[in-house]
Structures are given as structure tokens and as C-alpha cells.
Specification:
Layout lengths: L1 E7 L6 H9 L6 E3 L7 E3 L5 H9 L1 H5 L3 H17 L9 E6 L5 H14 L8 H5 L3 H10 L5 E4 L5 H14 L5 E8 L4 H10 L28 E8 L1 H6 L6 E10 L12 H13 L9 E3 L6 H13 L6 E3 L2 H4 L6 H15 L1 E2 L15 E2 L4 E2 L4 E8 L3 E9 L5
Parallel strand pairs: 4-5, 4-6, 9-10, 9-14, 10-12
Antiparallel strand pairs: 1-7, 2-3, 6-7, 8-15, 11-13, 14-15
Helix pairs in contact: 2-4, 4-7, 8-14, 11-12
Length: 403
Amino acid sequence: MVTGIGIVSPLGSSADSFWSALLAGASGAQRIVIEGLPELTAFPVEGVDDAARSRFGQREARRMDRAGRLAALAAASALEDAGGHGVSAERTGAVIGCVHGGAQTLHEGEQTLAARGPARVSPLTIPLGLTNAPVAAVARTLDVRGPTAVTGTACAAGTDAIGAGLQLIRNGWADLVLAGGAEAPLTPLLVAGYRQLGALSTTDRPSPEASRPFDAERDGFVIGEGAGILVLEEREHALARGARIHAEVSGNASTCDAGHLTDPDPAGTGAARAIALALADAQLTPADVGYINAHATSTPAGDRAEARALAAAGLAQTPVSATKSAHGHALGAAGGIEAVVTVLALARQALPPTLNLERPDTDIVLAHVRTARPADIDVAISNSFGFGGHNACLALRAHRTGG
């Protein structure tokens, strides 16, 4: 059961503000300057450092990389939303997806090394620069003493983390798990690398129009940062304490294309298999699904492959939206942020839109949600796909009173 939601995003850092902005068709995109690079459009989060100092204190905030601050802020909000859960620290776990770890810390360490020599490099460079820095920050600040882990499956990492959290509860290894993703990749090396790879949008359109999933004029993703964390709680415990239940994570699956270094399988075969396996894990069929949150990053190859995967999975006519158009592509955090979107769609019975979709351009006709609208849905899925051919899918159910 999902009993808590935590979000730190370019659209807002509470479930209410985030959801209201999403349904209103707002965009968190803006032009930013990163040292040594041309100005670019990105999706930054404002006020992270001040918020971390306010919540955790100056000393603790300094012992976290920016990705750790994002994760800890979102996880703390999720726990507050869950209320008095009564689960011991030893029975509480955390799994956080992250791709680039403490990127800001590593960048600052490299600058110090070059300018001042090895003796001046901070001893915190390693513990704050590791890929597990976000989950370690969550565990330390929130006293999580059960199983903890990081998933690093590229842009599928946040979704895989929630799937791993589900398995911890199913296996009886934890009664409550903080699960999702966090990422802070807006550093010179990472942005330059994605730019050189040809993955980033280079459009000269206004910033809010740059991310264009499924649109004919899409030309790459728009990089962002943020964190999305869910509190997953054992069903009987949640019901016994009278918890407010937002939704239920009913199934998950992961597959791998085992092909190209960066591009997905053009036919979407592995992605379609992940969707089918997640639905089977939840004992559901494609006919049960009322909403899809697509991974759709606004890359030409990726969106086309996902459309084919949805068709192969029997979901071409199911309402689908690509919310990265509003909050950006936060890499390892993407699955966590979009799981929050999917849970809110089920809990509040509304479908968020895909922005900037003027002329759909895939060989498969999908049921795109172009404007927000009310809905009556019982089941939704959230997709995430990453470099290396990683495919992940979550199947979620609405929680009906008495159900």
C-alpha cells in the first residue's frame, strides 16, 4: 500500500502544489547557465539547499550532496504524509534509484584538485560522491535501520527501486519502505556529456516548449533534477492503523533489451514484455488498465519504441500522458517522480496532460491525453526505460474504501 507521498520537483515540493501545477499545464523549464557551457533549457529545483538547512540543520545539510538533500527532503515529506505508522526503525527500509550519485560533490572535488592540489580535496568527496549517497542520506536523517539499497539501472532506476521496495515487503524483510528516486545532474561534465551524446534537446523554442514527447518536432530530452519517494507499507499493518491509503503497488517487472549501448530496441519488444510481466504479477490484464504514464523522454527513437511497445502490450488505445514535458527528465529520479504522478492520478481520479503535443509522430496511434481531465480508473501503469536496454514497469491500483 502507498501510504505516503514525497515530491521535490521543478513544479513544486508538495503533492498538492505539484499536482495542481501539473493539471494546470504549467512547466518548470527555464534557461540556466552552467559553468563553462552555453546557456541551456533545463528543469532545476529552487530552494533545495535552504530547505535542507531548515529541516535538517546546517551541519547535517553539509553532510549531504545535493542529490542526498533532494532524497532526504522528499523522504521526510513522504513519512509526514504517512502519519504515525508505528513501524520500528529496524523494520523500516529504503531503496532509492540514482544514476549519477553525488555529481555536485565530485565536480567540486575535481575543481579543488585542479586548483589547489590533492591535500585540499575534502575527505567527504568519496562518501558524498558515491551512487548510494541519496539512500545513505535518507537512512541517516530518518533513522532507517532495515534493508537499504540503491538501484542504478540508468533512467529505469527509480521504477526499479519501487519494485525492489515492493519485494522487500512481500518477502517479509520490512514492514515499511521508502522507495523512489533522486538525482541532481546539472553539473558541467554530465550536461556536456549528454549534449555530446546527442541526447539533449537543442531547440531554440521558448523553454516551456522544449520538451515535446511524441511530437513530430521533438529533438531530445530536457534534463532536470528532483526526487519522488513513496512510503510502501504492508497491507494489513496499514489497514489496522487506519492509514490513509493513496493507492496500491500491485505488480512490477524488469527486463533488458541486451542490445545497443544507448538506443532502445526499435520494436519495443523488451519494454512490451516488462509491461506484460508487471500486469501478470498484479494478476491484471491490459483491459484493466485505465491510464499509462509513459517514460517518453522526447527523443525520436525512444518515443517511437515506446509507442510500439504499448501497442504490442495491447495498450495502444489506453489513455497515456508523458509528464516529462512539464517536470523534465530527472534520469534516476524519473521513475520516482512519475510513480508519484501515477499514484495521484489514481487517488484523485484525474489524468494529467502531455504538453507541447501538436502533431503526434509515431507509426502507432496512441490515445494521448492532451488536456487534463477527470477520470474513473482502477488500474494504471508507469513505465521507465534506460540506457543499456533497461525496461521497468509498475502496475498500480486505486484504493477503494472497503476494498
